[in-house]
Design a protein that fits this description.
Blueprint: H1 13-18, H2 23-29, E1 33-37, H3 51-61, H4 70-89, E2 92-100, E3 106-114, E4 119-124, H5 129-145, E5 154-160, E6 164-171, E7 176-180, E8 184-185, H6 190-200
Parallel strand pairs: 1-7, 4-5
Antiparallel strand pairs: 2-3, 3-4, 5-6, 6-7, 6-8
Helix pairs in contact: 2-5, 3-4
């Protein structure tokens, strides 16, 4: 079988992004499958008491900030959402978290959130969701193979430009990855986005 990656070469997650590999080719490389579909992700139904305040803060500052750099988008759009997620879930947050599973699955996870039973990975990309999703699936596959991953049946990840979020979901038993066709925009879709993120880290009974 033809391999895209040289088994004698090391790759990082960011290097896989730069190779411009299609997401489907990437998952096939590691023995997984990919389907593109509308994801009906579960949403948290409890009160999110600071959500409107977060939306107002983002909307207030947007007219005054240039978002041309990845750093500016992280500071203004992504970090506030992630920190608010920690407030609601009390999940452990790791930023630029180093992870090495194999020579082909290694690098830094932009944001790794961990509750006692669940993991969630968030990858921030410039303005390229398509190949950003390729990097995300590599990170999800790495988490699936990582010996410190909780015994969760599904691993959820998100790739975001800051203003747009897209989810990927891995069924660990079937090795099937779903790429969500739904896109969530910040600040317009902040409510459903945050409810999906919170629910992903809720402790299962």
């Amino acid at each position: 079988m033809f391999k895209l990656l040289n088994p004698n070469q090391s790759y990082t997650f960011s290097k896989l992004f730069e190779l411009r590999i299609e997401p489907e080719d990437m998952v096939n490389e590691f023995g997984y499958t990919l389907a593109r579909t509308r994801l009906n992700l579960p949403q948290y139904h409890g009160e999110l008491d600071r959500l409107e305040e977060l939306r107002s803060r983002i909307e207030e500052i947007l007219p005054y900030v240039s978002l041309v750099s990845e750093t500016s988008r992280r500071e203004v759009l992504i970090s506030p959402v992630v920190l608010e997620l920690v407030h609601y879930t009390k999940a452990q947050l790791r930023i630029e978290y180093p992870l090495k599973v194999t020579e082909q699955l290694q690098g830094y996870l932009d944001y790794l959130l961990r509750s006692p039973t669940e993991l969630l990975v968030i990858e921030a990309k410039r303005e390229d969701l398509d190949y950003g999703f390729t990097q995300l699936v590599a990170e999800i596959i790495a988490l699936d193979q990582w010996d410190r991953t909780p015994e969760q049946s599904v691993i959820l990840g998100a790739v975001t430009t800051g203003s747009i979020w897209q989810f990927g979901r891995l069924d660990r038993e079937t090795k099937a990855i779903e790429q969500g066709l739904n896109l969530y925009r910040v600040p317009d879709d902040l409510d459903p986005l945050m409810r999906i993120l919170v629910q992903a880290l809720v402790i299962r009974e």
